[in-house]
Amino acid sequence: MALTRKIYMNRSTLDKLIASTGLIIALVLLAAAGGLLYAHNFVHSQVHDQLAAEQITFPAAGSAGLASLPAADQAAVSRYAGQQLLTGAQAEVFADHYIAVHLSKAGGGKTYAALSTASLAAPTDQKLAGQVQTVFRGETLRGLLLNAYAFDTMAIVAKFAAIGSLAAGSILLVLAGLGFYHSSRVKKSR
C-alpha cells in the first residue's frame, strides 16, 4: 500500500500567493500601458509633424481639381476639401483617391513598371520618358503617404491597446488589494 501524504496550505498563504501573482501581472500591464501610450504619442506626433512640413492641401470644394475626379473618389476627397493634410487617414484618402487617379491619367492607365519597360524599349521617346518620371514621382509620394497612413494606424492601435492594458491592470490591482485584504481576515488554520 502506497503511502500518501496530504499537503495542506493555509488559506491566508494561498490568498497571498494569488494576490501577489495578480499584483505582478497588474504592474506588468500598467507598465505596458505606459509604453503603448508613449508609442502612440510619439508615432502620431511624428506623422503629424512630417505631414505638416510637406504643406499638402486638399483641393477646395467646387474646385476644378475636385470636379475632375470620378464620383467615388470625389466623395472621398470632399470630406477634407480645402484642409491641410495632417493625419494618416487624410494621407490614405489623398494617396488612393487623388494621386492614384491623376497617375492613372498621366500614365494612360499603365503602371510605372509598364511605362518604364516601354521607355527602355524606346529610349528616344521623350514623351514616354516624361510619363515615366511623372508616374515615378507620383508613386513615390503616394507610397510615402501610405506609409504615413500605416504608421498612424499603428499609433491608433497602440492607443487602444494602452487603454485596454490600463483597464485590465487597474482591475487586477484592485483585485490583488482585495486578495491581500482577504488574506489578513482569514482565520489561520493548520
Task: Please describe what this structure looks like.
By secondary structure, the chain is an all-alpha fold. The protein has a domain at 34-159. Helix content is 76%, strand content 0%. It contains 6 helices and no strands. α3 packs antiparallel against α4 and α5 runs antiparallel to α6. The protein is elongated, with a radius of gyration of 30 Å.
Q: How many β-strand runs?
A: 0
Strand content: under 5%
Q: What's the end-to-end separation, in Å?
A: 26 Å
Assign the structural class, choosing from mainly alpha, mainly beta, alpha/beta, alpha+beta, or little secondary structure.
mainly alpha
Count of alpha/pi helices: 6
Mean pLDDT: 92
The residue ranges in which pLDDT falls below 50 over 5 or more consecutive positions are: none
- Kindly provide the radius of gyration, computed on alpha-carbon positions and rounded to a whole number of angstroms: 30 Å
Oligomer kind: single chain
Main pleated sheet: none
Element-level helix/strand string: HHHHHH
Approximately how much helix is present in the residues?
over 70%
Overall geometry comes to: elongated
Structure, briefly:
This protein is an all-alpha fold and 190 residues long. 76% of the residues lie in helices and 0% in strands. Helix 3 packs antiparallel against helix 4.
Give the helices and strands, then pairings.
Layout: H1 11-54, H2 64-67, H3 71-78, H4 88-106, H5 112-121, H6 126-185
Helix pairs in contact: 1-6, 3-4, 4-6, 5-6
